Structure formats: structure tokens, C-alpha cells
Amino acid sequence: MESNRFIRRHLLRGLAFVVASITTLVVVAPAAQAYDNGQFEFLYDNGARSGQCLDSNFAGDVYTNPCNWDNQYQRWLVTKTNTTSAIDGHQQYRLKNAATNLYLTQYRVNGPVVFTAPFGSFSSDYQKIDGVGSSWANVTLRSSHSNATNMAPPICVTRYSNAQVYSADCGQPNQHWVLNK
User: Fold this and answer.
1) Model confidence pLDDT, tens digit, residues 126-154
2) What is the pLDDT of residues 54-107, one digit of tens each?
3) Which residues form the signal peptide (predicted)?
4) 79 and 66 assigned to the same domain
5) What is the largest CA-CA distance in the chain?
6) Do 9 and 93 sit in the same domain of this protein?
7) What pTM, to 2 d.p., does this model score?
8) Which of 35, 107, 129, 159 is the most buried (most CB within 10 A)?
9) Are residues 9 and 25 in the same domain?
């Protein structure tokens, strides 16, 4: 009888330890998983690399400059969210600049705009980017939130010939990027 009580007590302690360990693992695990860290290089519409990478600064400006792997302002942490696009189910991500810790943000206010901002300083939906493409080797950085809220077409990060980066309706030239790792 005493040995049964001893066994039950140790089994219960062991079970409590396992449950506590699993609970700790679940609580400590991050909600979003980092996907990758790299540079987004602009691709010409024919797929040729441009040598120009998505760049930013502490003021929130977004533009391109010649790619330089050592330039932390051109490095982006790509974090997978737990949501998908309302348009077509593409996975959504957040892009955080490695140097500024600001997030790529797109939305429509008197026209589409793109900039970087602290997380949550605008609706966090504006900081979700749909990774549209068959792989990170040729992807469009699209915000579908503008479509879900006001039925306007989705907007994409667009590079113009003067190295300026804008948001424009998707489907236009100069909207393809490659994630260099």
C-alpha cells in the first residue's frame, strides 16, 4: 500500500513537471516566426537584377540605393504573421528594417503611400505585406489592407527610375523584388 502511494506521488510530481515544462515552452514561444533576413533588390520587369536595394532611414523614407550587404539600412527582417491576404490567401509578413527597427508601412490616404514607422503606430494591418510570387526570388510586396477596408485595388511597393520608391496600384511595371540572403 505504501509503495503504491509512493509511486502515485512520484508519478504526479513527474506529470506536474512535464505540464509545467510544456506550459513554459508555449508561453515563451514567439507568436510570429522570423522567416529571413536580407536585402530586397529591385528587379527589372524582364527579371534582370538592378543592383538597387530597398533602403530606408530613421525619418521613415523608403528609396533604393546601390546594394551594399554591409549597409544595415538595406537589411530587412522578414517575419511571418499568422494571417493571410483577404484577396487570395497569400501569406502575410512584416518587414522590419535592421538599422532603424521601423516597419515597412503602406496604405491609401489621398493616394497610396509607403514609409517605415514604429510597430503599431498605425493600424498594424498597414504593416502587413503579402509576399506575392512563387518564391522570394521574384516577389511583389503588396498591401491588401487597402482593398479590404475601402474596396480600392491593392497597392504594391514600386520603384521609379529616379531611385524613389512609392506605393502604386498593383499590376504596374517596376514592382518586382528579390530577397538576397
Assistant:
1) 899 988 888 889 999 998 765 445 567 88
2) 999 999 999 999 999 999 999 999 998 888 887 788 888 999 999 999 999 998
3) 1-34
4) yes
5) 85
6) no
7) 0.76
8) 129
9) yes
